[in-house]
Amino acid sequence: MRHGRADTHLTPDGVFETRRVLRMAKERGLRAGVMLSSPLPRAIETAEIAKKVFGVEYSISNSIEPEGSPDGVYEVLGKYSPEEMILLVSHKPLVTLLVSDLTGEEIVFDPGMLASVATTGFPEKANGKLVMLIPPR
User: Fold this and answer.
1) What's the average pLDDT block by block, 10 residues per block, for the chain (137 residues)?
2) Predicted local confidence at residue 123, as pLDDT
3) Which numeric CATH code is attached to 12-134?
4) Residues 73, 99 contacting (CB under 8 angstroms)
5) Separation between Cα atoms, residue 43 and residue 130, nearest integer Å
6) What's 92's DSSP letter?
7) What does the domain layout of the chain look like in residue ranges?
């Protein structure tokens, strides 16, 4: 997920849209067993909303900052079971690079957009399938 609409912090519209996207995802069956957030304020604020929706605590990971790399994310995700549902709260351009690397699809991520990708594990490239895409509006 890309953080909600923000300046440095989420705007009121960003908070509203983030709640809506996360609730829609939950209604469509998305669950988060693990949640990781970038350390930047707008991502942490988004993770706080997700924590309330999914009832799961989040951890901070420097690997999912805006200029992070898919390989850095795979290194972190490789510590979890392939069956684990993991929600990442990150930024552009990383979310775009990551989803493209996993699925081979180019997606433009608006603030607050969520993509669900099913994969068999990491670090295999382009082995994922885009399951769900929820835009903020």
Assistant:
1) 96 98 97 96 98 97 95 91 91 95 91 93 75 94
2) 61
3) 3.40.50.1240
4) no
5) 22
6) T
7) 12-134
